[in-house]
Specification:
Layout (H helix, E strand, L loop, with lengths): L2 H16 L7 H20 L8 H13 L5 E8 L4 E9 L3 E2 L8 E5 L6 E5 L15 E6 L6 E6 L3 E4 L4 E3 L5 E3 L13
Antiparallel strand pairs: 1-2, 1-8, 3-6, 4-5, 6-7, 9-10
Helix pairs in contact: 1-2
Length: 189
């Protein structure tokens, strides 16, 4: 972005800010000053010359792999005292953090023209307001007695893998974390 474009963008932002409420707060002034500083920094330094977009490609691949139908995974609790993974269940897909919402957690509310707009919290479809963050995780575990997927809530840190994990023992040898004779093979949904 060249300097003329940066300057034009800064002027536009300031003009748009002037169209808002007539009362200027210190936060608004600081925000405007920060926008000008960032424009100057972008004009002086420029943007990184990204050519391969490797991280973007990796994220696309991860998202596509997570979307596979019938993705079989293995879920483990991480035991912080021992530093080992403890098998929890055969699972389907990857876990979902408790704070994930199905709908947008906020919406823009328009008040009368003298008050402008505000961003307000929005309830989930069940009518409840999810927290912005939470320690818990939802996992679709396979019930060993029925072979059916069931929802399990977990608060410890989890590790989920598309293959059984191994763990190093204090003696330095690698042993399976999961005994295949004790855990049934994951069933597809």
């Amino acid at each position: 972005m060249n300097f003329k474009t940066s300057a034009a963008l800064a002027v536009t932002l300031l003009a748009l800010a002037a169209c808002g409420p007539s009362v200027s707060t210190s936060d608004q002034r600081q925000s405007e000053q920060q926008a000008v500083i960032l424009q100057e920094g972008t004009a002086a330094v420029g943007m990184p010359n990204i050519r391969n977009f490797r991280e973007r490609r990796l994220l696309r691949d991860i998202l596509q792999l997570r979307d596979q139908d019938g993705l079989v995974t293995y879920t483990y609790n991480f035991a912080e005292m021992t530093g080992r993974h403890v098998f929890l269940c055969n699972s389907i897909g990857y876990p979902i953090p408790y704070a994930t919402q199905f709908t947008n957690p906020e919406y823009i509310a328009q008040y009368s023209s003298s008050y402008g707009i505000a961003v307000l919290p929005q309830a989930d479809p069940n009518g409840l307001f999810s927290p912005a963050s939470a320690e818990g995780t939802w996992v679709m575990c396979i019930d060993p007695s029925t072979g059916q997927a069931r929802v399990v809530y977990s608060e410890p840190k989890l590790t989920v893998s598309p293959f059984p994990l191994t763990s190093d023992t204090p003696q330095g040898r690698s042993v399976p974390t999961i005994d295949a004779t004790e855990a049934p093979a994951p069933a597809t949904p």
